[in-house]
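Handout, page 2. Input:
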Amino acid sequence: MKQRVKRRLLACAVILLILAFTAALGMGMTRALTGIRRSDAEQILHFYSEDIQFQLQGRLNEADALAQMALIMDRSSTAWFENAAAPLLSQEQVRYVCLIEGDTITSALPRETFGYQTGQSLRDLSYIFTLSKVVKELVIEGPVVLEGASDDRPVFLFLQPFVKDNAYLGEVALALDSEYVLGQLSLQYLSDQGYDYELWRVNPQNGGKDVIAVSGSNIDFSNAVKTSFNLPTEWNISIQPTDGWISPANRAVIISSCFAAALLMLGMACAMYQSLTRKWILKKVSTVDIQTGLYNLPGFTAALDGWLSDDSSGPVYLFYFVYESYNQVSQLIGPAEESIFLKSIPERLNAFIQSPFIAGRLGDGNFAIAVCEDMSLNQQEDFAKGVTLELLLRTRLNGKKLFLTTHYQYRHCSAGRNQAEKEITALVHSYYEHRSSESPAHRLTEKCRQLIAGQNNVTFDEYTDLEMMELSKTFNQYRKQVEQLAYFDPVFNVGNRSKYQRDANMLISYDKKRPFSLFCVDICAFSQYNQLFSADIGDRILHEVVQRLSRLFGNYLYRINGDVFLGITLSGEDETSFATKLQTLLSSPVTAGHATFTLRVRTAVCLYPANGPSPEILLDRIQSAMRYAKESGQKIMFYNDELDEIIRSEADIITRLEAAIKEETLEVWYQPIMHLATGSFSTAEVLVRLPDGNGGFFSAGQAVALAERSGMVDQLGNYVLSRAGRFINAQGKALGLKNIHVNLSVQQLLVENISDHLLSIIRASGADNGQITLELTESVLIQSIEHASSTLEALRQAGIQIALDDFGVGYSSLNYLFNLPVDVIKIDRSLTQQICTSHKQRALLNSIVEMAEVNALTVVAEGVETLEEQREVAASGVQYIQGYYYARPMCEEALTKFLSQKTRASDN
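Output:
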C-alpha cells in the first residue's frame, strides 16, 4: 500500500516537474516577446510624452505672451491687457483670461461672465493659482469647470506667472476648451498605432488619481508602460497594446512549443521510471499495527529516525498519549467494540492533523505521534488537547455513559541518526515521572484554579473511578452555574455583553466567511416609564420586549445596557424586511399592570463581515449607527458607507483637533461685544476655529461636541482659556477690552477640583481673574446645578464672573434667576431675531431685563444683525449687544486692527 502511494507520489512529482519546466519555457518565451513589445511601446511613449509637453508648454500656452507683456507694460491700468486678450477671446477655444497682480485679480475676461472676480484675493480662487505663485513657473490644471461660467463645459487652465529677479509679481490665467486641448494632443495617434492609452495626473491636494483622457472604459492599465512629466504637478501617460502584450498568434506559437516540449519530457520520464522500477526491491517488514493500521513500535521508530536524520525536515515534536485503565475498559466493552474504536483512530487523526505527521501504536492504550511543524509551547499544548478530544473513547457500562480520555506528554526532538529510540524512551519516562507526581485530586484542583483565573474552556475529566467521576460531574454542574451568572442578565435571563462577545467570537472562529446580521433595539424615552410609574412597571415592559425579541433571535438575544438590546440572526433574510418586522413586532401595545403602553423603538443594523471583522468593532459601529439614528430621528439606521464616511470624518476632525492643540495651531477667534452705555467694545467672546484643510473651517459646535465625546474637551478648554488669558493680558488694556468671555463645557465643570485647575491656567496666562467670564449654557447649568454650585461659587469668590448662555431657550422660568449662581445672562438669538415682528417677544425681553435688574445681573443680547433689531433690543434696557450688526467673529490679528481703528476714531 505504502509503495503504491510512493509510486503515485513520484509520478505526481515527475508530472509537476514537467509542468514546471513547460511553464518556465512558456514564461520565458512570453517574457521575451513581451520585452520586445514593451521596448517598442516605451520608445513610442518617450517621443509622445515629449510632444505632449511641447504642445502644452509651448504651442498651446497663449498665457506666456501675456505674462511677458505684463512684465514690461504699465500695470497702473489694465486696458493694455484687455486689448491684448481680445484676439484670444475671439477664438472659440478660449473661454477665460485673467490677470492677477500680486495677490489680487485686476482683470477677468469676458467681463460679462467673470467680471465679478475683479478685486478678489488669490486666496478666494482654487489652490492651483497659489501653486503657480509658489513654484514661479507654468502650471497646467484640467479638465476643470470654471466657477461662475455660464455652462459646465470643462477647460484646461494655463497659469503663467511673471517674475522679476526671482520675485513673484503676478500671473496670467488662460482657460482653453478641454476638447480642443485634447484634440491638439493627438491621442488618436496612439489608438491608430494599436495602443490603449490613459492620460492622468496626481492630485496635489490628496494624492489621488485624476484621469484626463482614456481610450476606453473598464481598461486595466496596471501592466501598461508609463512615463511621467511635471507641469509642475505630476502628469502621467500609460499605454499598452489593444490586443495585449502577447498577441493571439504569438500565444498560439508559445502553447504549441510548450506542448511539444512536455510530450518529449513525458516520454523520457516514462522510460526512466520503467528502468527504476526494475531495480526496486520490496522488503516485507512487519512495521504496521494490524488492529489500527498505524506504525507499531519498530515501524514508528524507523519512520521517526528518517525524519530526524534529514536536516531539511524542520523541527519535530513528539507526543505520547496514554489511556489509563485501558485494559480494564477494553475487557468490559468487548473485542468487537474495541476493534471498531481502534480502526477509527487513523481516520480521526488524518481529519484533525493538517501538518506532516507519523503515528504509531506502541502498546495497549499507548500511542505516539510525531509532527513536523514549528510550534510554540502554547501551540504544543493546544495540539495535545485537540488530539485528546479526537481519541476520546465513548461507551456505556451498566447503562451509564463512560468517557475515557488520554493523558499526554510532549517534547521537542533533537536531530541526528539513530536518535528516535532515545527520544521515545525519554518521553515515556518523562510521562510516567509526571503522572506519578500528579493525583486525580491534584488535577481537579488545577482545573478549579484555571476557572478562577478566568479560563472559559475548562472541562472536568471523566474518570473510571466512580467516586472521582461523581466529583467531576459535580464540578461541571457548578461550572455551568457560574457561567450562567457570568454570561446572562440575572433579571431577564437573556445574554449580556460578555455573552455577545463570546457567541460572536465563536460564530466568526467557526466560519469567518459566514455572514450574520446584528440588530440593536433601543426603546425611546424609556426612563419616563420608571419615573412616571415605577421600576416594577419598567421591568414588566422590558420582560414583554424580551419575550417578543426572543421569537426572532432565540438564544442570540442580549441586553447590553438598560433598555438597549442586541440580537444576532443567521437567517439570511433581507435586513430591511427583518428590521421592518422587528418594528412591527414591538409596535403592538404592551400591558404592564393595569396600564397599556405603545412603545417607540429605534433599530440599528450592522452586518458581518461587511461592516467589521470582530465583535468589538461591530458593537462599536452599531452603537454609532444608533447614535446617529437618535440624532436624525430615524426609526431604522443601517451602518453603511455614508455613515462610515461620517465616522471617518469625525475621526479626522478629532485627529486635526488633537494635532492643532498639540502644535498650538488651533485658531482662537473673537467676537466683540458692544457696551451701549459707553458705545465701545469693552468685552469679546472667544470662539474656536478648526481649519478643515480646504480653506474653510469645521463647525465649532461639531468640533466641541466631538471633543466632549472623545474625552478631549479638557485639553481644548485649557488651550482656549490659556490663549484668551494671554491675549487679554497682553493687549486688553491697549484695545479697551476689560473682560473676555470663554465657554466652559459641562464635562469640565464636573471634574474634581476644576476650580483650582482653571484658576491656575488663568494665573499662568498672566490675566487677572476679573478679566475672565466663564460662559455655560442654560440647560447644562440647570441640569448640573447641584454638582456645579460649589465649583461656581469658588470661581466667583476668586473674582471670575459666570455667564448664563442661550438664556430664553425654554428650560427655566424668570423666577429661577434668584437661585442661579451667575453674574451675566446672554439672551439667545431665537428671542432677538423675532423682536421686530412679535409683540410677545418684545414683552418677554423687557421682562427678562427688569428681572435681571432686580437681581443685579448684566444682560447681553446675542444675534443682533440688523439696525431694526438693534434699536428694539437697545430700547429694552440691555447693557450689551453682540451680533453681526456690530462685528463678526475675527482672528486675533483682525480683532486688534478692528479695535485699534475704533479707538482712534473715538479719540478723533
